Amino acid sequence: MDPSPYDHPYRGGFVGKEHRFALTVFFEDTDTAGIVYHANYLRFFERARSDMLRAAGIDQRAAIDAGLGAYAVSEMAIKWRRPARLDDDLVVISRVTEVRNASCSIHQRVMRGDEILAEATVTAALLTPEGRPRRQPADWIERFRSIEQKGH
């Protein structure tokens, strides 16, 4: 049986400096009133950041397998503005705002059309398998700086 184009997971991508990741609100994301439970925005942000790393050419699985470590959120500030609801089509827009030796800062917005529903500022630090901060590989820093300054 030949694979269908629908057999492949969705991938977002860069539009200039911004990474765009589309999603639909499913029943599991909501409370009994059909409104997205506040903690589920964390999952939306995380999926978009992971997809952004993939689109930037950073292979998190290979880094973990090689013993390099993994990114972990070390700081996050969120502002909820409006509720998302069951069946809403959303876009999470992520933009790298600062790159440091062992971490980077990312601004993220959950959008419904032109409306900002939630936004977050996230600091993600690269940690060793033992949980200690470590310097990011030079090529990763360069990729982040390229995205931050010129767009991907």
TrEMBL record:
Indicate whether Ribosomal protein appears among the record's keywords.
no
* Keyword GTP-binding in record: no
Q: Which organism is it from?
A: Sphingomonas edaphi
Where in the numbering of this chain does the Thioesterase domain appear? Answer: 34-117
Name-wise, this protein is: YbgC/FadM family acyl-CoA thioesterase
Q: Which domain of life is it from?
A: Bacteria
What PANTHER family does the database record attribute to this sequence? 4-HYDROXYBENZOYL-COA THIOESTERASE FAMILY MEMBER, ACYL-COA THIOESTER HYDROLASE YBGC
Pfam families, per the entry: 4HBT
What UniProt keywords apply to this chain's record, in alphabetical order?
Hydrolase
Quote the NCBIfam families the UniProt record gives: YbgC/FadM family acyl-CoA thioesterase
Entry similarity comment:
Belongs to the 4-hydroxybenzoyl-CoA thioesterase family.
The entry lists its GO molecular-function terms as: fatty acyl-CoA hydrolase activity
Query: What EC number is given for this enzyme?
Result: 3.1.2.-
Q: Which residues cross the membrane?
A: none
